[in-house]
Each structure stands twice: as structure tokens, then as C-alpha cells.
TrEMBL record:
Pathway of action: Glycan biosynthesis; glycogen metabolism
Organism taxonomic ancestry: Eukaryota, Metazoa, Chordata, Craniata, Vertebrata
Gene Ontology CC terms, in alphabetical order: phosphorylase kinase complex; plasma membrane
Species of provenance: Acinonyx jubatus (Cheetah)
Domain Phosphorylase b kinase regulatory subunit alpha/beta C-terminal stretches: 1107-1252
Protein name: Phosphorylase b kinase regulatory subunit
Amino acid sequence: MRSRSNSGVRLDGYARLVQQTILCYQNPVTGLLSASHEQKDAWVRDNIYSILAVWGLGMAYRKNADRDEDKAKAYELEQNVVKLMRGLLQCMMRQVHKVEKFKHTQSTKDSLHAKYNTATCSTVVGDDQWGHLQVDATSLFLLFLAQMTASGLRIIFTLDEVAFVQNLVFYIEAAYKVADYGMWERGDKTNQGIPELNASSVGMAKAALEAIDELDLFGAHGGRKSVIHVLPDDVEHCQSILFSMLPRASTSKEIDAGLLSIISFPAFAVEDMNLVNVTKNEIISKLQGRYGCCRFLRDGYKTPREDPNRLHYDPAELKLFENIECEWPVFWTYFIIDGVFNGDAVQVQEYREALEGILIRGKNGIHLVPELYAIPPNKVDEEYKNPHTVDRVPLGKLPHLWGQSLYILSSLLAEGFLATGEIDPLNRRFSTSVKPDVVVQVTVLAENNLIKDLLRKHGVNVQSIADIHPIRVQPGRILSHIYAKLGRNKNMKLSGRPYRHIGVLGTSKLYVIRNQIFTFTPQFTDQHHFYLALDNEMIVEMLRIELAYLCTCWRMTGRPTLTFPITHTMLTNDGSDIHSAVLSTIRKLEDGYFGGARVKLGSLSEFLTTSFYTYLTFLDPDCDEKLFNDDSEGSFSPDSDLGGYLEDTYNQVTESEDELDQYINHLLQSTSSKCYLPPLSKKTEDSHVFSAIHSTRDILSVMAKAKGLEIPFVPMTLPTKVLSTHRKSLNLVDSPQPLLNKAPEDDFQWPRDDHGDVDCDKLVEQLKDCSNLQDQADILYILYVIKGPSWDTNLSGQHGVTVHNLLSELYGKAGLNQEWGLIRYISGLLRKKVEVLAEACTDLLSHQKQLTVGLPPEPREKTISAPLPPEELTKLIYEASGQDISIAVLTQEIVVYLAMYVRAQPSLFVEMLRLRIGLIIQVMATELARSLNCSGEEASESLMNLSPFDMKNLLHHILSGKEFGVERSGFDGRSGFFACCSSDGHSLTHSLDACGARAVWQVLFQVLETEHWSGQTRLSSNGVLRPIHSSTSSPAISIHEVGHTGVTKTERSGINRLRSEMKQLFSVSQAVASSAHSSKSARSSTPSSPTGTSSSDSGGHHIGWGERQGQWLRRRRLDGAINRVPVGFYQKVWKILQKCHGLSIDGYVLPSSTTREMTPQEIKFAVHVESVLNRVPQPEYRQLLVEAIMVLTLLSDTEMNSIGGIIHVDQIVQMANQLFLQDQMSIGATDTLEKDQVTGICHFFYDSAPSGAYGTMTYLTKAVASHLQELLPNSGCQMQ
């Protein structure tokens, strides 16, 4: 007999350990592992982690086998693994109805269960009796299903099981927006059953999606039908959200030891090594103890102070658990494995030695890993006084199977029995490796030969869509329909992937469908859904963003290939040439760089060998799934008059279309519409249906009376100055404007029937001969109000021509004419919604940015704090907009732009927690009214007429704090141009369009963040720039730059510069505390100077009062509207709350007990503070309150232990305002200084810089000292 090698003996020892501590709990029928001999339930997550030691030991035996018995042992161990994985699969497949339902609802009640009966695979508790929704557990199953399959195990047997796994992918692909209960099954750490977005769930889902993508579940024995498909954009969503969350674990947990499984084995989900190290160091510094790591701060599980008779905690009870949290040895096993993967022998040795010291010796001397170590009840007070000094005792399960398994696995790795690549065959460990630069392949295709010829005139040679046959080109929405068939299975009643938007990563691959190569155009070029794609400058901007996104986020082999179509909508107004913005973009693409992205421009045939391919074999003819098996096919698509690339292009190639061609044509034709309205006349002097002296608002006023409708005036032709009345209900501009006189009803030339009512049939007849866009809109709106959108007009004797159809056609015409106000309004009437609205909202929420829509206060302003289904989200926006459909549409637009920026420039949002869309829109209109010196009506109207590109740029300037001026460079008849000169010297050029004979010409604009006063620039008699209808240029009008005072965010807050000044003032306040007389003396001895004298800014420039007037009021209004606060603001508020009983803000108290529930770094605490501040409706007043709180937070740096009572922040601001007024009157100001009617604050105080003798911080500091005098003990505490 051959003697056993030393390695064989060691493996036999581990085999006995595995058998006695893990496999003894495995059910022989189902293969599931019970949690212990007492707890017979099988948890999904625990089962997977517990079987890893068995999997690793099996591979170790196979690699180190020196006897036949070793090979048999390896096979036996591997089959134990297969049995368990198939047992979990059976548990989930019995809940297939939940998988199907959850894909659409993402409700906690529709989720897969977290634990099952070990003997029967059945459920053990009700849907609402446990925190079942744990996305990380399902993701962990898929991750190791992929890893184990790649290692050679055969776990999936049939195509039905493949379809189920594909639907599990759909189950977890939206993890980035699903609030669940997390690794510890409790959600929010108060343990009250509140789900929250968990970084551990998002990270594990990302890892699982990446691991299982393009994996053949049948291994070496499979084919393309057993391959799993994952949409790369879902992976990237998870990646970006995870990056934004870490090192935070969730809104209620500022750090969690469970993140070790995300930053290292098994997920390796984080690609930024710096972020990995930051998260790891946070865990070590905040959670590590002598016996392992706490799960999270203030974790009450099994602590002596936890009440075992209650499942939940009282909020203030969490403070009791601080410093006595139980410590879990399992987390040290993660550190050992992490050290092995990183080649850090010192880390491996340190944690192995530490772990050996806390293991429990069982029978026969085997090592057991306990669940946790807890403080003995009689030593709690001692541990409070001296943390990490009391000896702890083991509690909970012994062994803890999860920890026991990872202990054995880490030992096998550390001792060399396993290589890292054997337990990570899919190479996830290389996620932090440097990736090569991505070159994006761009192919430009002309829609037809006409466009192809126009491009050739400019020296740009491209192919048309017909030229590239047999390669097929389709819009991106068709790919969404195709993917909706992936994973369908009649046997299990699985519907496949829900119809969802597919991002640019998905459309940048080439697809092989039924042996034909397809390329899909990005959805941002699709004019089918929303009007953003009607703006050529916006398309170019979105192309720039998406190319940069591709360069950053592309992870697949091969290069991304983006197909950019040049369509008839990208021509000039007369159709004679290519739009200049599109043409210049093509020029930049030819240079090889565009927007910071490396690009290669070429024909599609050149890129066939370097592109990434996906084979969609589920559409093959021999598959059970048929293309036309659903009667409702095509019903997912919204109505539009702008279709895609119809397949008649290819009729020249084949006479008989196959089923795929028919299916694609069916989808395209279901979203196209016919033309019914008469063509528009290009003449500006066309006669109108109604008298020119009457406005559309007058028409609607009479219509409302005629119908007895209690509706606000909702004008149709937005380009006219009378069309903002319906917006006035939102008070976009704070200055009230007089209403225009309404014309008497009898003056209107209405077509009447015999009964004197409005004759709708005659209106339809007039519509036939109406060639003016505005009049067509007027008539259709009247029909919309009277008859409704479904009324059949029988226009030109054709049946089925509804008002809705005609509005859709009018929408297309308005798009071609760039009538943005009209486009937005018709979009509202048609209830169009941005297809990516829900995704955009989710992006913002997942980056920890809450949203509010509508204007304050509540309940009109509605908060969005969790992802909502698209229909519910749209309904909420319309409700918050007061049924003002233009504002509702604009709100959607702003949300999309914010989402673009939060993905591309997250630094813009660092100091913002809640984005108030209503206030942002209000600030846009207010800034316009002041900078152009126009009325509120005209400002609101001009805002609605901005092109999407201009609107997006305006929003960016407000967010970023850039200062720039407006100048007019000239007009050329129908279209004019003006330029916005930013402070960095660049110029942005935009065009003006005529809006009809009745319409008032409006100027597209860029608003100054730094306002200019009416005395500096007078634009026109009524404050609006007017185009000149001549070929000569109009006189140039420019608004010049006004210095660089307080441009940076730090300077705006005024905190850092004034820290030393305020400390000096606090030193003075020691004398204030001693006597009231000295307080008055201190206030009167402040140096004074005339208001008109100049003061110095941070850059050394001297700016007179007249030049600086209005700057700081605007800055406070802007910062208050976007909820910008200084860095570290919430943490400083937490500290000051520990020294007082609470902060009173506008009548609402933020109690000090909040700190007993929440820790300073929690987003939950920041949200709580924001909810109090947001009760203040005036943004500039809110910002003064923030400044006052920042002065108060300086007390947290002093040695003062306690202040005592409740600090009334609004009283401090009012007192500071009074001190300011006293000083102003002492130097000659009158007592009639203008004040805010609501708050009583002087406008000049709002407009004061933070620093200086008359700065707000000076007076706020004095007010704080005076206010605290009433709260401090009589003995007088000195502030250091």
C-alpha cells in the first residue's frame, strides 16, 4: 500500500472537519443545509456560503489526489455541492409566480423567500412575516451558479431551468433601484421592517450579472440556446450606484462589515482600488474589535441591552447599543481570503493568528467558529467606560456554518491546497486591474440618398441605410421589443424581460438574429418617444455624453460600435443643407476625438471584425417562441408620428419577407401615423381663423364659460405673451403681473349651430383650410376641450381621425418648426412621458438625492424618496404641477437633465441632498425676468420656449455656479442668433425662430447667475429683445461680466474665510456673557463705513456697491433652491445637537434625541435635517438659516459641554437682521428699508456678503452670542 503524503493527510483532516461541522446538517433528500440542529430552516445566503468549503475541498482533492479514493472523494464532495445548488433551485422554481410578478412590481410582498423548509423545499413563513426581499441572496446564488458551472460542475439540466435562471437575471437586474432588507434581514437598523437600498445588494447583483453574462449553463455540453444574456446598461447602473454609495452601506448604516463581500471575495464588484481601500479602512477603524468585527454601528442583535421580546427597536434605544455591539469572527475569514487574493502574507498571518485565538474547541479537538462574541450582562457599564477592554463570551450558533465554511476555505487557500483562480474561474479578482483605453467606433449613416448627397457636398462620404445591406439598421426601441421575448417560457408561465429602455451600451453591440447582422441606433436619436430628439443641438450634446460614457463604461471584448443616423429632421428649415451643429460634429468625429472620447469614424463594414457580437438565438425559427404569438404585440409603444427605418428599404433585396421582417415592420408601422392636416404655409402674412385682436387666452376663457368648466386658462400658442397665465398659478416669478383684459364673448367669430352653441363640425371644416400652425393648434385645443381626445373628426371624410391623432401630427409639425413652447404643451396634452423618466428618477435617488416636484410648501410640493413605476411617477408630477401640463412636461425634462449630470458630473451634487424641481424652475424664470428686465409673464413664456439644449445648459450654469452674460449678435429675418459669453470667454450660439404672425418674438437666452440691474442695461421698452425683420444686423446688445466675487462654492458659503473672524467674535462674546452692558458696547464698537464704499473680495478686486448689488441675494436664492449646503454641514449639526436640547427652525424642532438614533455620517440623519429645513418655503431665507446654523456649529469645537435649552435659529436670524438695521440707520439709512413681507428680513441683509463689517456672518455671530446668553448658566461658561 502506498503511504499517504503529508498533503493527503492534511486534506483528510479537513474532510473530517467538513463532515462533522457542515455536511452533517445536509438533508439527504433536498440537499439543503439546516442552520443548526435546533433551527431546521435553510437560509439561501447561509446555504451558499456554507457549501463553499465543500466545493473548495472537492477541487483540492481533485488536484492533489494520489489515490483512487481521493478522486472518489472529490466526486462525492462535488455532488454534495450540486445537490445543494439544485435544492435551492427547486425552492425558487416552486415560487416561479413570484419571480414573474416581482419583475413588474418590485414589491416586498412579491419577492422570493429568504428561507425554506430543509426537508420539503417549501416556504416556512408568510410573505409579510419576514424580511424576504434580499437581492444579495438571490444574486449570490447566481454568482456561484456561474462560478461553479465554469469550474466544471453541471447544475442546470434542462432548457426550462435555463429560462428560469434567465428570469432570475431579470429579477436582480434592477437591484440598483430596489430597496430590500439586506444581508441582515432587517432593512433599516431600527429593525422596524423598513427596506432600504443596500450597497451589499447592489454590489452582489452587479457581480452576478457580470459573471453570468454570455455563460453557457450546460458548460461544455451546451449550445447557444443555453446561454444567458445580460443587458450591459443594467450592470453599469449598479456600478455607478455602488460607486456613489460606498463606503456607506445604506441610508441608516454609515458602514457595514458585510461590504467585505463586495469589495473582495466573492463579488469583487468595485473597480476603483482607492475606493476598495477606503471602505476596508472604514470597516477596520469603526467596526473591528478583539473578537472580530461588528456588523454595523449600534447593532443591538444579542447585546445585553436588547429586549428579546420585541422585534423592533425604539429610535432613541439605539444609543444604548453603542460600544457594546457583538463582534463576529466570520469577518476575519474575509480578511484572510482577501489577503490571499492580494498576495498580502502579513495580513493573512495576522488574521489567521487572531482567528485561531478565538476558535472554540469541540469534540475530538476540532475547531469551531462561533456566531458572535457578546459582552456579559454584568460587564456592560465597564465596557461603556473603556471600550474593547472587557472579555467577551461566545453566543449564538456553534458552529456558525457560514463562518465555519469560510474558515476552512481560507485555510485551504492559505496553505496552498487551492489557487485563487480555482474558486474564481471567471477571474472576477481582476476587476481593479487597469483597463485599456476604449476606442469607440462610430459609423454615420444617411437616411436616404438625398442626405447622402448633401453630406458629399461638404466632403463627407457616408453610406446610406440601403447601401450597407445585408447589415440591417433599426431604431433602439425595436431592440427593447426583441429583448422582451428573451426568457419566455409557456411551461412555467414566464413572460420574459419587461419592456424597458435599452441604453447606449446595449445598442453599441452588433447582434446576430437568424443569421442576419443587426445594428441598432441609440435611443437618444429616436424621435418616437419624447421631444428631446427633435433638437439637433441636443442630439449632438447627448452624442457627446454617450461617447464619453462608452469610453468609461465599456467592459466587453471588442470595441463598441455606435451607429449615428442622419435623418431629414437634421436638415436646415428649408431642407437644403445639413444642420450646422450636426455637420460640425461629424468634422470633430473625423479628427479622432470628441468630447474627450477617442473615436474612429468609418463604415460599418470596416468594423465587423473588431466589434462585439451577441447572438440572439431565442428568436431562431426552431425555437418554441414565435414572434407573433401575442395579440397585443406593439401595444407597448407610445403614439407618435415619427417612425423608424421601415423595412421597405430592403424590398429590393427579397420579394417575400420572412417572419422576422414582418415582425419588425409590424412594430414600426404600429408607431407611425398618416398625415391629415393641411400643409403649413411658409408665408407670415397668412390670415387667421379668428380675429387677430383676440388672444388664445381669450378664446379659452370663453370656451370655459361655454362649457361650464372650472378650469384655469390654459393657452395653446405658447409663443404669445398671453400664454403664461396658466403658469401664474405656480408663481414662477415672485412679482405679480396684471392680468390682460378679456374680450367679451360676443366679439368672437365662432361658428355657431342653430342652437347658438359652438359648431364643432364647422371648426373641422375650417381646419381643412387652415395652413397656420398656431391656428391649427387653437382649433384642435378647442375640440380637445369640448369633445375630448378620442372624438372622431371625420376630417376629409376619413373615419378614425381622432383629435388625438391630429394632435400627434401637429406635434410632429411643431417639432420640424422648432416651436418648443408648443411642443411642450402638445406633449402634455398627449400625456407623453420621457421613456427614461423612471430610470432618470431612480438614478438620482440611487445617488442619494431625493426629489421634490411642485412648489413649496407641502402638500403642494411632493417628495419622491423611493423609485416609482413610470405611470405613478407621471401622475405624481402632474398632480404636483397643479394640472399645468407645460410645467409637468418641463419637470420631466429637468429630471432627465439632472440624471445626465449626476452620472457625468457627480461633483456638481456633492453638497446637495434634495433637489427641488419646482424651485429650480422658479429660479430659472426669476433669473430671466431680472436679467432681461422683463415681466414675469414674459420670463415664464421665454423659459417654456427654450430649446432642450438651451434648457440643459441653463440648468448646468445654475448648478455649477458659472457666471456669464447675454449679448445679441444679429438677426436674419426668420431666424436670429444671440450669443452667451461665459466668464471663461467662450461663446454659445443659439437660434431664434418666428412663432407665427400673431406671436410675439421671444429671445432664446442664457440666464446670468449673476443678475444685472435695470439701471445697467435697458433691453427694450418692455424688457424683451426684439428681432429685426431685415437682412441687416441689429445693434449689438451685451451684458458684460461683473467681476468674480465669491465665485467658488467655498467663497459663497463664506465659512472657511470667516472661521478665524468668528472665533475672535466668540472671544468677544465672553465679555457679552458677563454683562448686558458690555454686549451693547461690543455691538456699537463695530467699525462702520458708508454703505456705498467699496469692499474687497477674495481676489483683491474692488467692487462698488452698485456693481455688486443683488449678487448675494441671488446666490442665496440659487443655493437655497438647489439645497446646497457647506461641506460637512450635517455632521456639524449632529455635533451641536449633542450640546443642546434641539434646534428650532421656523417653528419645527429638530430634537437632540435624533443623535441617539442616528450616527453623524448617516444619510438618514442628513435627510432628517433637510426635511426640517425644507419647511421653509423661501430659498433665500432657508440659506440664511443654514448660515446661522454654521455659526452655531462652531460651538462643537469648543470645550463647552452643554448649552441647555432649545436654540431658536429663526430668532437668531431675526436678531441679526435687527442688528443690521440698527447699524444701517446709525449711518444715515431711513427706517423704510425694503423688507420681505413674509419673513421681515431686509432685502439689503439678504444681499450682504458673508464677510466684512456688514457681512451676514458678523451679525449672525453677534446674534448667536446674544441668544446664547439667555441659555447659558448664570455662572457663565466661557467659550474657547
